[in-house]
Automatic annotation (TrEMBL):
GO terms for molecular function: RNA binding. NCBIfam families: PPR (TIGR00756). One of its GO terms (biological process) is RNA modification. PANTHER family: PENTATRICOPEPTIDE REPEAT-CONTAINING PROTEIN (PTHR47926). The lineage of its organism: Eukaryota, Viridiplantae, Streptophyta, Embryophyta, Tracheophyta. Keywords: Repeat. Pfam families: E_motif, PPR, PPR_2. PPR repeats lie at residues 281-315, 382-416. Belongs to the PPR family. PCMP-H subfamily. This is Pentatricopeptide repeat-containing protein. InterPro entries: E_motif, PPR_At4g14850-like_plant, PPR_rpt, TPR-like_helical_dom_sf. It comes from Rhamnella rubrinervis.
Length: 606
DNA sequence: ATAGGGTTAG
């Protein structure tokens, strides 16, 4: 029966583990694997070999000419490396199996060829099997493959890159001189992914100096480095490089260009590229929508989302993150709720990125209880989830709840970061918890090894200042190890305003103007301080000076959302279609208020 | 037969 199956060219290929057992038994009996057997090992059997590796290894042991099995071994290793997915458990075993088979090959005299080692290395990279990969690194040096076969070099670099070992990637890259475009791209990509985009760009220039021409994949990676750096000048150079060197502007290149231009603050070319793309996919839309949101162009981002929907293209999680982020910043609760309903309807889990941005959206739109419900329902809470709800609760004056949730973090094994402490300190500040705030500030460095930034110092000055401890606030600024910035002086000036400290305020205003000379913040705060101290003449003088200096105004803007349409209102803005009626109504309210309370009690700015 | 690509928060 075995002989029939193994010998006859008419028999069906072996497909199951049972067939493998039969071959195994036959080989043990005859010490021979008839050559027609090899083509009969179907892909399905090769796949099942991952679960029956011991049989394969035994077969190898019993063969008279094991080297005939090189192709079989290569295809088993290839199958192992292409089937193992990155998952929590079991994957390590698969790469281990690839390595076991590889060792058996060596022991039994199957000489690996150019394809074997890259396949085994790929299996290691996919399952992050660093230890096994390092053994292969040693083998590659000894056998000479590392220097003779650029695929070995590149797959080894890839393994170290996915394990985050930048130094090892550099070392393998630098070894010998057999590097090609893939080696360069892998190196640059590794720099960018590990948070060193500057090094990535420099490596690209090195590559150009080495007379190596880039292709689509390389420019995409370098563009992403420019995007992360916000380096428009290098980004533009790269755009020129693409045109001059005949790099094919495929959809990947187009998307990377859109992302680069938007993150570098130049929206026009991004839109132009988007409009002129012959093929667009969901990533093109995502790059545009999240890029616009990143630029603060939230309304534009939402407009593009609506346009995307008209094309019938389904948004994915990344689209929705950009959309919810825009809703959050515009305060569009109804729009945000609609997205939440869309998420539920499409069975997308309100977890991870999506959950976090939902929490933030509800908190920023004033619906703190909805934010809390989403937070509670999340299974995978991380530092972003906790920070979003803590900052949200702090902004809503719910200091006690914010601090309670903060105290949950260590129990869940989640370490707070710098932004979490902004929320914690804001909570303390709003609730007047001076002692607690001081303790948290101290813990930041002592317990969590987080170096406080100027924003944290600003929170502390705000905390002391609001509570009336102006002297302590001043002392605190004097002892700062870093240069105080606008957030710090602004907090102190705010405290002067609350407590009517005119003279101190005048000095603080000068300091604030030094670090922020072309913004109107200092003037506005100070003139308010004068007004509240009844120094009207000084207030008017300051307002006049402000007008003359043509300063950058912090835009005061309110918006409402009616039936999905956003209406924005700015001070003095008459662009609304119904502005005449609106102003007439406002005039009515004003005169009503005046007759009820008198002008001194109520000032409405229109 | 084998290697390198873009978009996501507080």
């Amino acid at each position: 029966m075995f002989a029939a199956r193994l010998g006859s060219s008419n028999s069906k290929p072996a497909t199951t583990a049972r067939h493998l057992h039969q071959i195994h038994a036959f080989v043990i009996k005859t010490k021979l694997l008839p050559s027609p057997t090899l083509p009969m090992l179907s892909p399905k059997l090769v796949a099942s070999a991952s679960e029956n590796l011991s049989h394969v290894c035994h077969i190898l042991k019993h063969l008279e000419n094991p080297d005939l099995c090189l192709d079989l071994c290569n295809s088993i290793v290839r199958t192992l490396s292409s089937t193992c997915k990155i998952s929590s458990n079991g994957n390590h075993l698969i790469s281990l199996q690839a390595l076991v088979l590889f060792q058996e090959m060596l022991v039994n005299g199957v000489v690996p060829d150019n394809y074997t080692v890259p396949h085994v290395l790929k299996a290691c990279a996919q399952s992050r099997a660093l230890g096994e990969g390092m053994q292969l690194h040693a083998y590659s040096i000894k056998s000479g493959f590392l220097l003779s076969n650029v695929y070995v070099k590149n797959t080894l670099m890839r393994l170290y890159a996915v394990c985050g070992l930048v130094n090892s990637v550099e070392a393998v890259f630098a070894e010998g001189c057999n590097r090609d475009l893939v080696s360069w791209t892998t190196l640059i990509q590794c720099y960018v992914k590990m948070g060193f985009p500057r090094e990535g760009v420099m490596a690209f220039f090195d590559m150009c100096n080495a007379k190596q021409k880039a292709d689509e994949m390389t420019v995409v990676v370098v563009l992403s480095a420019c995007s992360r750096l916000g380096d428009l000048s290098v980004g533009r150079k790269l755009h020129g490089y693409i045109r001059d060197n005949g790099v094919n502007s495929d959809v990947f290149v187009g998307n990377a260009l859109i992302d680069m231009y938007l993150n570098c603050g130049d929206a026009d070319p991004a839109r132009k590229i988007f409009d002129e793309m012959p093929v667009r996919n969901v990533v093109s839309w995502n790059s545009l929508i999240s890029g616009l949101a990143h630029q603060g162009e939230f309304k534009e981002a939402l407009k593009m989302f609506q346009k995307m929907q008209r094309t019938g293209l389904e948004p994915d999680n990344i689209t929705l993150v950009g959309v919810l982020n825009s809703c959050a910043n515009l305060g569009l609760l109804e729009f945000g709720k609609w997205v939440h309903a869309y998420i539920d309807k499409n069975h997308i889990e309100a977890d991870g990125y999506i959950g976090n941005v939902l929490v933030d959206m509800y908190a920023k739109c004033g619906s703190i209880e909805a934010a809390y419900r989403v937070f509670q329902g999340m299974k995978q809470k991380d530092v972003y989830s906790f920070t979003a709800i803590i900052v949200g609760l702090a902004m809503h004056g719910e200091a006690k709840r914010a601090l309670e949730i903060f105290s949950e973090m260590p129990k869940m094994g989640i370490k707070p970061d710098e932004v979490t402490f902004i929320g914690v300190l804001t909570a303390c500040s709003h609730a007047g918890l001076v002692v607690e705030g001081k303790n948290f500030f101290r813990d930041m460095e002592c317990v969590y090894s987080l170096r406080p930034q100027t924003e944290h110092y600003g929170c502390m000055v705000d905390l002391f200042g609001r509570a009336g401890f102006i002297d302590e606030a001043e002392k605190f600024i004097k002892n700062m190890p870093i240069e105080p910035d606008a957030s710090v002086w602004g907090a102190l000036l705010g405290a002067c305003k609350i407590h009517g400290k005119v003279e101190l305020g005048e000095g603080v205003m000068k300091k604030l103007l030094k670090v922020e000379p072309d913004r109107d913040g200092a003037y506005v705060l100070m003139s308010n301080l004068y007004s509240s101290a009844n120094k009207w003449r000084d207030a008017v003088k300051l307002r006049k000076a402000m007008k003359e200096k043509n300063m950058k105004k912090t835009p005061g803007c309110s918006s409402i959302e009616i039936d999905g349409v956003v209406y924005e209102f700015r001070k003095g803005d008459k662009s609304n279609r119904k502005s005449k009626e609106i102003y007439k109504l406002l005039e009515g309210i004003r005169s009503l208020l005046n007759s009820s309370f008198g002008t001194d009690d109520c000032i409405i700015l229109i």
